[in-house]
Amino acid sequence: MRFRPLIVSSIVLALLPLSAPAYAEDPTLIPTPGTSQTPTPPAEEPPPAETPPAETPPAEESPAETTPTEEPSGPESKVEAGLGVDGGTERAIVELTDPAENAPVATQAAAANVDVVLQPLSQSFMVVEGTAEELAKLAEDPRVSSIHRDRTYLPADVSPNLSLIGADQAHAKSFTGAGQAVAVLDTGIDPDHPWFAGRIVAQACFSATEEAGVESLCPNGQNKQTDGAAADATTPKCLAGAVNMCDHGSHVAGIAAGTGGVAPGANIVAVQVFSRINDEELCGEPSCLMAYESSLREALDYVGTLNQPIAAVNLSLGGMLYESNCDGTEEGAVFKEKIDALLAKNIATVVAAGNEFFDGVSHPACVSSAVAVGANDNSDAVADFSNRGPLLDLFAPGVDIESSVPDNATTVYSGTSMATPHVAGALALMKAATPDVPMTELIEKLKSTGRPYVYDSNGAQVTTPRLDLAAALAGTAQQPPITQSPTQPGPGDTSGPSPEPEDSSNPDPGTEPEPEPTSSVSPVPLPTVTVTVTVTHTASPVSAVCTRGTAAKKLTAKKWAIELHRSTGSIPDATLTCYLKLIGKSSKVFPELTKASSLGKAYRVLKNGKTGKAKLDGALLTAWLNWAHGTNGTTSLTAGEKVRLSAKPSAAALKKATKNVLKSGK
């Protein structure tokens, strides 16, 4: 059985995690795009080579045929566009009309040779592995309401921070969060760490697996465990040599409710939601951690069944980027239902906004009822890597945050992953102080008392409050607004490493670009973030934050092919690798259908124009690379991807979509 490339943002722990936590800086990180200059193409450069020539449609296809963006009717309308359209099997979530139908539908699916890989009998969904034809047949069952990919998520990266938000003043008035709990859905926890001092009141593990390349992180080796030390982050499966890949969850839990955290008296519910992926091509190293949507859904439901008082669920992880509310999307609607159900029980869901320096947030922070959190630094400015804009609810400290990691140690990380537990811990303090006040009111109080950050986002002025517990809980006055301009790290910050791309293979010999570009500009510098390690940990190399560039300069497919071909362009390989990771998080085509997850593979996509689909793939990748490089506008990309995801797009539709995509960006 094959498992599809996992889509998500790029953030890496001491490993390289997806549905991974949301850190910005981490011991192994993904480099980030530069912000200064862009390569200047030679003046004599011929017109874009990627503009597709007129294509004669196949005999069986009519050029006049309507664009396949029309919504199909019947059972096929239940299946997400693009599932298995290019062959192979897909891991998919099958939504059912009722939990009681789980067993009979699963039995029927198995009889039809569809592999049922997860069957939570109390849930109205199951997870299967099947071809496009098998999934379409399964959709004919009236008990099946829809079928979509089992998406994955990454972790976001990971004292002055506590005093900045006034937590020290709250502690001085005996507000510690005692009697409340924070549920941390992450990479598990070190159950014996002194920062948690017997306050871990429940543990669980939901760790999806497949036959090849994916392993469970549950101590019992199964996909699910809700007893004992189920979220133990010190198990052998968490280790990659001497590195503990599961340290992110302990760090997040320590910020929210450790003895050195925001709510040092609160309890902790630790839930492991990640799986171990042993695929160097996908991970960029032998192993990494990622979380499936199905695992997250089970974990959110599990928290809802607990009897203890829980103030907040912390999700320091993220997937696809959104510029607007995602409640109406399929993935957004699923998570909104879960988040709303918890909110009805006075439990907030606090989610990392992401570290892409993007005017928007990652999923599921885009859900309207989630509390989306960006990061600020200790000088009271928006962190240079943080996502921002009107979808954010709060900023909180996320730069150089020291917290607990396995083996009784502490480490310093940065990222919106670290900002998020500041807010989760703050809500534990608020709920412990006023247990009868609805959670919605507590959230609004944090927002209304926070210090306003005033800044521009997508050409409009936005105000987002920075968490201030001194004003919300300790009775001090609201601090005055700070007007600022969030910017990426400057050109002088170039000390970060330039790691090798995920695929070191060169393109096919016969298709190498002949000319080596000449450029009068220096390579785009990569911003860096220093990772400081304390106690027993060994210092890790300096790592960079992976964000979009600011060049806002469109390059042709031919120029991008030159950049992607190893050492022939002006943009560093590390920056290009970052761009591909951002594209993988934002696109449904790459690498879902078209495997452009590494420099060599992306190069081949740009050079392959043999079919209408291949030409559209090249146009889409060119436009996405321009977007990652700093150009704006994704409307035509979304429309083009819809055509590409169609099961049988006509030649005319492919040609039209290719033309429109090549015009995109500004």
TrEMBL record:
Ranges where the Peptidase S8/S53 domain occurs: 177-441
Biased composition (Low complexity): 57-76, 478-497
SUPFAM superfamilies: Subtilisin-like (SSF52743)
Family: Belongs to the peptidase S8 family.
PROSITE patterns in UniProt: SUBTILASE, SUBTILASE_ASP, SUBTILASE_HIS, SUBTILASE_SER
Keyword Manganese among UniProt keywords: no
Annotated segments matching region Disordered: 27-86, 476-525
Keywords assigned: Hydrolase, Protease, Serine protease, Signal
Compositionally biased intervals (Pro residues): 39-56
Signal peptide (residue range): 1-24
Official protein name in the record: Peptidase S8/S53 domain-containing protein
